[in-house]
Fold each of these.
Amino acid sequence: MIAKNNIHFDKISSTNDYALSIKNHFLFKEGLIISTNFQNNGKGQYSNNWHSEYAKNLLISIVIYPNLSIKKKFDLNKIASLAVCELLCCFGLNAYIKWPNDIIVNDKKICGILIENILSNKTIKKSVIGFGININQTKFKKYNIPATSLKMLNQKSYKVKKVKKELINYFFNNLYLYRKGNFDNNKYNDLIYSLNMKRDYLIGDKIVKGVIKEIDHTGNLIISVSGEKKTFKAKEISYIF
């Protein structure tokens, strides 16, 4: 189904994959929304798989034209992550951002974000920002991070279309603020999961205790280990749940 800038499928491999497959089509423009009831090949960051029951969750990709230096690519994560946290707040939930791309409520994952960019001369020209938000699903496979959903947390069902509309509003509001130079970086930083808390992390094959101090402007994780600040890129360190 195509309605204005909204394409909805009953089933598809993944919303991000479809969006990128039409990147040269006239439909592929900022504001294009692609959603589906079910993904045959739902994926998360670094080719991790994420499974979702039919019509239970919000599976959506948003196309934007950032025209942003590749050095600022993590700003897109900030915009998307904060939008989800604000969305969940309106449902009465305290959500946190687990670096680099998951949203956590009560130490369980409720949302994953996957951003794929199209570059030209070290500039991000086009981006596909994919969200998978658990809405009404109550049974999940076992993952490294336990999963949860709106229904499990609030003991009620929700209309996925309503959540979709709210997410789009929060996302584009944050994008607008960013472009105007008014994005609240402090609000983003305050929502970092386990900020200033000592906990176990896996670095290589060693478990160490560390304290997250901040996310730097390029998206690296700054952790204090034995009193020494260390910088980590994605996949160089893992949370232990």
Amino acid sequence: MSSAAAYFCIAAVITAIFATVIPAQAADPRGRASTEIAERMKTSREGYERLLAAYEEQLKIQIAEYARRKKLYQDGELAEVYVRMAVRDVVRTRTNITEIQRWILEDDLALTEAVARTAPPLGKGGYEDSALLVRYNGQTAWSVSDAGKIESFFLARFGRALPVSARGQTAAHDRMGFDHHNAMDVALYPDSEEGRAVMQYLKQSGIPFIAFRGKIAGSATGAHIHIGKPSLRLASPR
């Protein structure tokens, strides 16, 4: 594939993605709304994966072009400015790839929580540990502004930063119509030493959470811990 062909492929995929995230209709019944949103998000995610593949193909072409120009420059047949231009192209595409990977992660987390909305609500202080989820309905008034306490605990316990994957509202939650402003997602497997320690800390502190052990409903979502109340306020997707 030529560089021009790769560019037009990327442009076409971007157009298709924006078409899929336009809301089909306002949500009405809770279960039906969750299903519709999940289907749109899956379609959106597939578009991101196609876009990622297109950028990766473009990167291969750009790296080869950089190598060609570098050789010509070393042989005295090309000005250095053209080598620097090739480097900028590679850096720009790698940045785009990183951004798309972040979008995919955000969509994965938001989609997991969308499907999990169908679980029956817990009573005050309720706790549930199932094959798929660990849920705790703590009653402490927690918000993202309190995240520093959890991060400090984790840093002191494990000597590294808490792996936060979504802090507050993200573009994925906007598209789904979920209020995630006072919630935080952490990329930890619930049954790992770190995951168990965080859940124990949250429970002892009365902080509500939902921990996902793995994939949900055939999506490509990964395990993580959602800290805060479930993202239950469903509005019209944006």
Amino acid sequence: MTYHDYLFFSVRSSLRDLSPDLQDKYKKNFLKELQNEKKVITNSYVLTGLKDDFSLLLWMQSDRIENIQNFLTSLLHTKMGRYLQIRQTLLGTTRPTQYSSASSGHIDTERKGGAYLIIYPFTKTHEWYQLSFAKRKELMKGHIKIGRKHPQITQLLLYSYGIDDSEFIVSYETDDLREFQTLVMELRTDSVRSYTQQDTPVFTCVYKTPEEVLEFL
């Protein structure tokens, strides 16, 4: 899929003032909307307790950005949607990587099955772009080598140039957060790190089925 939109929501506390029966009815209608959508792939995650006032993430992807907008509008117009507030969005597109002509990873954007999804926006420094392409490619070799030491951690790189505030969105799927920490610590030692302008905020998300996500609200 070409367009990816990471949508982070908080839940209005007034939802809990409703009767259990009414909450259940609203959640079932919301779930029906999610399950009936054919043009947008959606994966759901919980952030409760992991980021201040963030409750859930819907990772939406489609080949047309209008499909995502239309689907999101439908969700927000449900009774359940009235209690959701968008707190953060990260928008990016798939493109072939500049530094490995053999790579086709950008084509496969399906969820890989990791228990955790870690996402952050990323921007390089001006000095990085003043280097020749050959020099940048050479520097990236070390970065790529470190990543290959952790094959069970999968990465998806999206491009946000000109369509969002950052230049990239980086996301990782893993079943082991401590191993992911090890990967990040190793990446910090690489010389490419000096060309990082920004790589926060970091969002750690726990995968749940839509049915399970709604139980957390």
